[in-house]
Each structure stands twice: as C-alpha cells, then as structure tokens.
Automatic annotation (TrEMBL):
Higher taxonomy: Bacteria, Pseudomonadati, Pseudomonadota, Alphaproteobacteria, Sphingomonadales
Chain positions covered by the region annotation Domain IV, binds dsDNA: 367-486
Name of the protein in question: Chromosomal replication initiator protein DnaA
MF (Gene Ontology): ATP binding; DNA replication origin binding; lipid binding
NCBIfam families listed in its UniProt record: DnaA (TIGR00362)
Ranges that cross the membrane: none
Residue stretches making up the Chromosomal replication initiator DnaA C-terminal domain: 394-463
AAA+ ATPase domain location: 182-310
Region listing for Domain I, interacts with DnaA modulators, in residue ranges: 1-111
Binding partners and assembly: Oligomerizes as a right-handed, spiral filament on DNA at oriC.
Length: 486
C-alpha cells in the first residue's frame, strides 16, 4: 500500500510539474506575442501570430512545437516568421534551440470541395478551412459540424448583445433566416475582436438550419486572393467562376485584404452581380467602412455598400460585464468574485477577444496552481494584457467631458452651488471618477472643491440607484462611458 501511495504521489508531482511548465510557457508566449505585435503591427499579428498555440518542448532536442489551425497558415508563418519566432524563444528560454511550426495534430483534415465547371467535386482534393464550400452533400443526416469550416461554438445563441452590436446582430439574424432578407449584401464593420467573425459563422449555422439543402461558401479575402491566383496560373478560371457562382450564401471575412488586386476585385465584382441577380445572399466583414477601403475600384465599393452597412461599436463596460458573466458558466462551480469581473471589464477595453482571453488565462492559472481567483491574482498574472489596454482616464478629463455633455461651466465641478442643474452633473462626474479611476473617495472629494469623502460616497450610491430606476440617467451614463473609453 505504501508503494502504491508513493507512486501516486510521484504521479501527482509529475502532473503538477507539467501543469506548471504549461503555465510558464503560456506566460513566455504572452510576452513574445506582445513584442511581435509591436514589431509587425496589429493587422499581421492578428491574422498570423495570434492563432499560434504553444505545444511542449522536446527535452532531448530542445525543439518547441508551435501549432496553427490549418496547413496554409502553418506554411505561411513558417516561411515568413520561423527565424524570428526561433530567436524570440531562444532569448526567452535557454533550453529552446529550435521551433517546429506545424498543423495541430488534433485538427481534422477537411476534404476540399473544389468544383468542376459542371458543379461536381473531384475526390481526394485537399483544402484549407479558411476557404470552404459547404453543401447539403457534405452534411449527411447529422447536421453541421466544425469539420466543414465553421466553428460550432460561434452561434447566435452564444453571441451577447448590447447597444454596441444589436443592429449588426439583428441584421445577421435576418440574413440567416428562412424568409428572404430585405437587404443584400450585408456588410459588417468592426474593429478586431468585436464579434464580426462570430456573426459570420452564426449566419452560416442559421442559414444551413433554415435551408438544409443549400450550399454556402465561407472564406477570408486573403484566401480568396490565393485561390484566384492559383486558378489563373493553372488556367482554370472557368472552374473557379462556376464554383463561386453556384452558392446560395457567400461569406467573406476581412474584405480589406483584397485592396489593390485589380483582377481579383473584378472577379469578385462579377460574382456579386451574378449572385445578386439570382437572389442569393452575400455577407462581407471588414475592419473599416466600404468608403474607407483604399485601392478598391468605385464599382466594387458601390456593390459592397448597396445593401446594409452594420457597424459594431466597441463594447461598453456593461456589455463587457455581460460577456464575462456568460463565460463563467463554463467554469462552474469555480467562484470569480464580482470585483474581479468589474476590474477586467473596466481595464480590458480594446476588444472582446482580449477580454475573454484575460478571463481564460486568469482562471487557468488559478486552477493549475490551486490558488483562488482574486483581484491581486488578476493584477499579477494579466500584466501584459492590462498594460496593453491601459489608457489612464483622469478626473480632469471626466469633469471636462461631463461639463460638455450637460453644457455647464467647468467651474461648477468645484463650486458650492446647490441648483439641481449643477448638482446632478457633479454627482455623475463623481460616480464616473470612482468607476473609471483608481482614486479613493477622499482623493475624488479633493478634486471636487475639497468635498468630504462621505459626499462622494453618497453621489456614487445615488447615481447607481438612479441608473436602475431612471432610463434617462442610465442612458446619460452609458453615453459618457462610451465617450471616455473611446
């Protein structure tokens, strides 16, 4: 019995060491990734570096595995960034002598659905999931799965809505519904990490559920370009055109990457015209409005903006809290204190992807090390994410914004006047100062004409209560939060 107990203890110790190693690798990768983002720029980093998953280190060879979701992306990163990644890891960890970039072994390989001119599929033709045709012949009786290119977790049910994204959400639902939408194409415009790709996938799921025998086409604009060039070189443009124009729903992500490619733009233009003429549905997504796409010919810009352009704004603090709360169901019964959620929602403001990533990292660290989730742990373990998001809002900035909003003089923030038209804006400014800055009640009081800390506490509690009972007050505070956080 003692021997079995010792073996169990050694196994437990080994498991702990493996978990600790995984945490350390994740922390090193967070630092390396942040450095690459600064070097490469946000766009390249988001497209190619962020999807990398860190594997383990072969202790004998010193080789570290880096995984990407598709063969195309793995080859692209290997060709362009292998040396840079290898050097960064050698600096971060002395035991790393080389990096190996490959497709994640758990990733299912997907048969390509390339079409001949007559619409048939050749057998055993490989594909990348970033450009995927999906049809009833691929679904069988089991319904839709991730093996045909869309993420099964990215559905409308999993999308959390707020004022910032409700228009885009409702428009996307219409596009995926049974009845024909009033507009096409739908153009989703949002900054990175705000949910436009989620909505693209959700439209695909909903459309297949409503039209089980239909065929949809999902790709990135960058992948569209690659396929177009390959077809051009192989003298297979007839097949390429037939393939594109045989779909009932066309979903194209990151359309900004088609900038400057005249021949590909022309083919996309003709495809849009052909599909619209047949009543097909088209959805595009980009990080900027159609009019802001430089290097795109006017005819294509006209087609992209002729339907509905739905803008997804940056999530406000209330929406960020809702998203964090929704994600906690995956970790039950783990407890995450309310002050930690408030802290994350208040400080990680750039995009939803980073917000959820911060929560996941914090919970993973707590579970792997056996610690409780706390505000101190969040501040210690999320320094990279927090520093990247931190834009320090000052009380002076809050006072100036509130005075402009309510059209009162800045001196009223410190005056002794008790008129309602002055008192209420002053109380709102105190409330925002407590929500958006790390200042204590006495410090805030001093910035408002030397008022006592009890006055500030009263103002904060009053505005919190009014937001629950008065829709106008809640609307004012939401508007001010959006202005100050933008």
């Amino acid at each position: 019995m003692r021997k079995a107990s010792n073996n169990g203890a050694r196994q437990s110790q080994d498991d702990f060491m493996e978990d600790q190693e995984a945490v350390n690798l994740a922390a090193d990768w967070a630092d390396i990734s942040q450095g690459l983002r600064k070097d490469l720029g946000h766009q390249l980093h988001s497209q190619w570096i962020r999807p990398i998953q860190v594997g383990g280190i072969d202790k004998d060879t010193g080789t570290l595995d880096l995984f990407l979701p598709t063969e195309f992306s793995a080859n692209w990163v290997k060709d362009r960034f292998a040396d840079r990644l290898s050097l960064a890891w050698k600096i971060a960890r002395s035991e790393v002598r080389d990096v190996r970039i490959q497709v994640h072994p758990g990733r299912r390989q997907v048969a390509d659905l390339r079409l001949h001119a007559d619409g048939r599929r050749p057998a055993n033709d490989g594909a990348d999931t970033s450009m995927m045709a999906i049809g009833a012949d691929t679904l069988g009786d089991t319904g839709f799965t991730s093996s045909v290119g869309l993420d099964p977790s990215l559905t409308f049910a999993a999308f959390i809505t707020g004022e910032a994204n409700v228009l885009a959400f409702n428009a996307a639902q219409r596009m995926g519904a049974t009845e024909k939408p009033q507009f096409s194409p739908l153009y989703l415009k949002a900054a990175t990490g705000q949910g436009k790709t989620h909505l693209l996938h959700a439209i695909g799921h909903s459309f297949l559920q409503a039209h089980p025998r239909s065929r949809i086409f999902y790709c990135s604009a960058e992948r569209f370009m690659v396929e177009f060039v390959q077809a051009l070189k192989a003298n297979q443009m007839l097949e390429f055109k037939a393939r594109l124009r045989s779909f009932d729903l066309l979903l194209v992500d990151d359309i900004q990457f088609i900038i400057g490619k005249a021949s590909a733009q022309e083919e996309l233009l003709y495809t849009i015209d052909a599909l619209l003429a047949e009543g097909k549905r088209l959805v595009f997504a980009a990080d900027r409005a159609p009019q802001a796409l430089d290097g795109v010919e006017p005819r294509l810009l006209s087609r992209l903006s002729m339907g509905l352009v739905a803008d997804i704004q940056a999530a406000d603090i209330e929406l960020r809290k809702k998203i964090l709360t929704s994600k906690l169901t995956r970790f039950a019964p783990l407890e995450v204190p309310g002050d930690v959620l408030d802290f994350l929602a208040r400080t990680i403001t750039r995009n939803i992807r980073e917000l959820v990533g911060g929560l996941n990292k914090l919970i993973a660290y707590a579970q792997l090390t056996g610690q409780e989730v706390s505000l101190q742990l969040a501040e210690e373990q999320l320094t990279d994410i927090l520093s990247a998001n931190r834009r320090r809002i000052t009380i002076d900035e809050i006072q100036r914004t509130v005075c402009q909003f309510y059209r009162i003089d800045r001196s009223e923030m410190s005056s002794k006047r008790r008129a309602r038209a002055v008192v209420r804006p002053r109380q709102v400014a105190m409330y925002l100062s407590k929500v958006l800055t790390p200042r204590s009640y006495p410090e805030i009081g001093r910035k408002f004409g030397g008022r006592d800390h009890s006055t500030v506490i009263h103002a904060v509690r009053l505005i919190e209560d009014l937001r629950q009972r008065d829709a106008d007050m809640d609307g004012d505070v939401r508007s001010l939060l959006r202005q100050l956080e933008s």
